Amino acid sequence: MIAIGKLVKAVGLKGEIKLYPYSPEPSCYEGCQVFIDGAGYTLDQFRQHKGMGFMKLAGYETIEDIEHLIDQEVFMQRDDITLEEDEYLITELIGTSVVTEDGEKLGLIQDVLSHGGNDILVVQGQEEILIPMVAEFVTDIDLTTGIIVVRLIEGLR
C-alpha cells in the first residue's frame, strides 16, 4: 500500500472530501479502489483543482457519512498506481544505493526533499550529500537492481 494523500475537510453537504495529495498528480480516477483507515472504498468521482484532489466515495452521500474520515491518510495498492517512464514513488527510492558514474559507492537514499522546482536526494554514507534530482546529476535509476547512478560536480560533496 502506498499513501497518496490525506483527507483534510468535507466539501459541501453531499459527501465530497478534499484530498491533500502527496504527489502533484495523484493516480486517482473514478472507479478505483482506495483504502482509508484499513477499509476499502470505491471512488465514485475524482477531480483536481489548484493542486488539491476532490473525491466522492461510492455510497457516501452526506457530510455526516464522511466526517469520520477527515484527517485520515488515503492509500492505494502499488499495482493501481500508474507512473510515466521517468516517474518514481519516493517510497521506492528510499534505501536504494547511490554510486557515481565511476562506481564509487556514496551511500543510501535516506530521504527525498520536495522543495520548489526539483526534488533533492538525501544520500547518507560517510557524509550526507544532497543531490538535485535532475538529468544533469542523476544519470540512471534502476529500481530492479536498487542502484541510482549520479554524476557529481565540485561542490556537491
Write the layout of secondary structure elements.
Blueprint (H helix, E strand, L loop, with lengths): L1 E10 L4 E6 L11 E4 L2 E11 L2 E6 L5 H4 L6 E4 L13 H4 L3 E4 L4 E11 L2 E7 L3 E5 L5 E5 L4 E4 L7
Parallel strand pairs: 7-12
Antiparallel strand pairs: 1-2, 1-6, 2-5, 3-4, 3-6, 4-5, 7-8, 8-9, 9-10, 11-12
Structure description:
The chain has 157 residues and is mainly beta. The chain has two domains: 2-80, Elongation Factor Tu (Ef-tu), domain 3 (Beta Barrel); 90-150, SH3 type barrels, CATH 2.30.30. Helix content is 5%, strand content 49%. It has two helices and twelve strands. The chain has helices at residues 63-66, 90-93; strands at residues 2-11, 16-21, 33-36, 39-49, 52-57, 73-76, 97-100, 105-115, 118-124, 128-132, 138-142, 147-150. The protein has a six-stranded antiparallel barrel with strand order 1-2-5-4-3-6. Strands 10-9-8-7-12-11 form a six-stranded mixed sheet, with no helix packed on it. Strand 8 (105-115) and strand 9 form a beta hairpin. The protein is elongated.
